[in-house]
Predict the structure.
Amino acid sequence: MRSPFIKIVLAAALLASGAARAEEETDADRAKRWKDLETAMFADRKVADGGKFISIEAPDRAMDAALVPVAVKIGGKVPVKGLYVVVDDNPSPLAAHFTFGPAADPREVKIRVRLEQYTFIHAVAEGADGKLYQTAKFVKAAGGCSAPATMNDQEALKDLGAMKLQTLATFVPGKSMEVQLHIKHPNFNGMQMDPVNRWYKPARFINEAEVSYAGQQVFHFEGGISMSSDPAITFGFKPKDRGELTVVAQDNKETVFEHVFPIPLTEPAGE
Amino acid sequence: MRPLLFAAFLAASVPEPSGYWTGPNQGDTPDTVTGGTVIHTPMLAGMLRHGHPVLIDVSPPPPPPPELPPGTVWMPPAHRDIPGSVWLTGAGKGEIEPAADELYRTKLRTLTGGDLGRAVVLYCHPKCWLSWNAAKRAVSYGYRQVYWYPDGIEGWEEAGNATAVVQAEQ
């Protein structure tokens, strides 16, 4: 009489221990993956835990794997000169590397990335002293790299490199201000199957941008194919009375795009 | 009556194509596959506890490395799927090449020991037509116990189940 009950309990226990073991194994794999990436990107430099002053805001589960918003906030008193955003389980994991200049306010940076599978996203901040600090967040989304481009080439390449700037805070001279830069570019990642000819569209993406304000560097950006199409970067900088924000961007086919935005913005933002 | 009818209409919003699906691999898939049975994670886990269904992962192969600026880190992660699976990348294509078709037939024959009544489970990722095609194809080969697991690798992982690294069959 008792045996079916015992069987059920046993099955449940087996299931529970199986699940726990699976998660441990997967955790070990993910930790190893990160170690491998650390070595590939930073060689033998030590990457310390930065969880106390770096945080990542991203959805636990993203609706669109090709467009996952990621915000990195850097608090604390450690001056920061650079930031790396890494999507661990993408084939080309380094999404963005920012090097901050004197006009930057690096406390918050937002980008949008593609996720090919469930993955950790790592943010690595580089202190002014050259030390590296990391934190991570797990995000569930899949298929964002191989998802076919949603428009044809002609539409995708229309107004290539057109830029918009949106201010997210009121302009107060001398006070740090947050803005979003938007560059129209399909950012083809070389992994998207063309539905017509059934081959992969060659990679074409924004891989560099230099942003400066009144002659001072805000940041230099190096982007990878993990950045979503139409790259959008939210960042902070310190405007004076008035000045110009200059953006020079380039894609991997060496097409250069430039735009100068007066700050405060006088016209409706961008073109 | 009306809301029920409407619900039924919504549920059947993606009809089964008459042939194989030749559009993009990813997208909304039907709820059914004619001649096969749709199963979800608890059922598959149960089947694996009590039997030895043939597990075939038909996920697409990784894309070749794109042309990237020198020095770019290109490190595709290992492919992971349900432990004990065979990874057959070409079996779910809408228009299958004769060689891939032959490979699929041969692998199925070997894995089932030539038993057309053996349970065969086809899967890839969620919202992936390749596994739907592969299930339909297995039915056309004469297999009588074809299961389509549309939750895919991520659905399996999501439920806390183990995955294992696998190499694609050549």
In short: Chain A has a mean pLDDT of 89. Residues 37-263 of chain A form a domain with the Immunoglobulin-like fold (CATH 2.60.40.10).
